[in-house]
Specification:
- By secondary structure, the protein is an alpha/beta fold.
- 43% of the residues lie in helices and 19% in strands.
- It has 10 helices and 10 strands.
- Helix 1 runs parallel beside helix 2 and helix 5 packs parallel to helix 9.
- The protein starts with a strand and ends with a strand.
């Protein structure tokens, strides 16, 4: 059984470390890479196909024709990987490799060893090693974190780290429905887990694991306007999950509605 890794990409032509990705997948047959092109306007798609040509059986490409945000890209990748019966675990990581492969493999090892449903990286948990981040970004992150803690009501230090891995069984619950937010979908992931498992049980089924290394790479896709709007967007998420979306969904319902991407989604797949 394999672990599928989703790598969402938007205008990553000049930032993708193609050599690192190809080397990793050629050396790790127990993994499968799923790159999701989120309507890039540069030559990202061509770069992805060049990588696939070097490892055609171990790399897949999901091409979202219109830029729709990281949430949609990750969800599209999850739906595709779930259709592959040999995939036992599905995770995602950032295209800039701000979290490296060593840390991601450690997340997978913990998921298997502790039989958890979700294991996710943390840049804030005690024990983290070489974490590099500029001062203003660090201050703003702490500010946003307080809003998120209020919304979740769970003792999670870092919801927004771009490295998470899920047991196959929980994937339909997390990714069945489209996310409300384009970028803050990590918060929605934990809200969905909390609603499905209950506040009393969710923390025993998930693990927050310190990263040994995480580096903020410049040229972020989130601008100043996005940052200013974050508190309002978080409030919008809270309203949707606590006032509007109050329906309890079972695992059977989620699995029944969790279908492979189709032509109606304006998505092309190179398996």
């Amino acid at each position: 059984m394999k672990t599928g890794i989703i790598i969402p990409c938007y205008n990553e032509e000049k930032r993708l470390n193609t050599k690192a990705f190809v080397s990793f997948i050629q050396e790790h047959s127990e993994y499968h890479l799923c790159f999701v092109n989120d309507g890039s306007k540069d030559n990202t798609l061509e770069v992805l196909y060049d990588m696939k040509a070097q490892a055609p059986q171990a790399i897949s490409i999901v091409d979202v024709k219109k830029n729709s945000g990281k949430a949609t890209a990750v969800r599209a990748g999850a739906r595709f990987l779930f259709s592959m019966p040999e995939i036992a675990h599905i995770g995602f990581m950032d295209a800039d490799l701000s979290t490296d492969f060593r840390d991601f493999k450690d997340l997978v090892k913990t998921l298997k060893r502790e039989n958890k449903l979700v294991v996710f990286g943390s840049r804030n948990a005690q024990g983290s090693g070489a974490i590099e981040r500029n001062f203003m970004r660090n201050v703003f992150s702490k500010f946003v974190k307080q809003f998120i803690l209020l919304i979740l009501g769970l003792p999670i230090r870092d919801t927004q780290c771009g490295a998470k891995v899920f047991s196959r069984s929980i994937v339909p619950v997390v990714y069945e429905e489209a996310f409300v937010s384009r970028w803050l979908f990590d918060v929605e992931i934990f809200l969905r887990l909390k609603k499905f498992m209950g506040a009393a049980n969710v923390m025993s089924n998930i693990t927050e694991q310190p990263l040994m290394r995480w580096v903020h790479v410049e040229d972020s896709k989130l601008g100043m306007r996005d940052a200013i709007e974050i508190p309002g967007r978080l409030a919008h998420i809270w309203f949707n999950y606590n006032v509007i979306n109050t329906t309890d969904r079972t695992l059977a319902t989620a699995e029944a509605n969790f279908t492979l991407v189709s032509s109606e989604d304006n998505i092309a797949i190179a398996a």
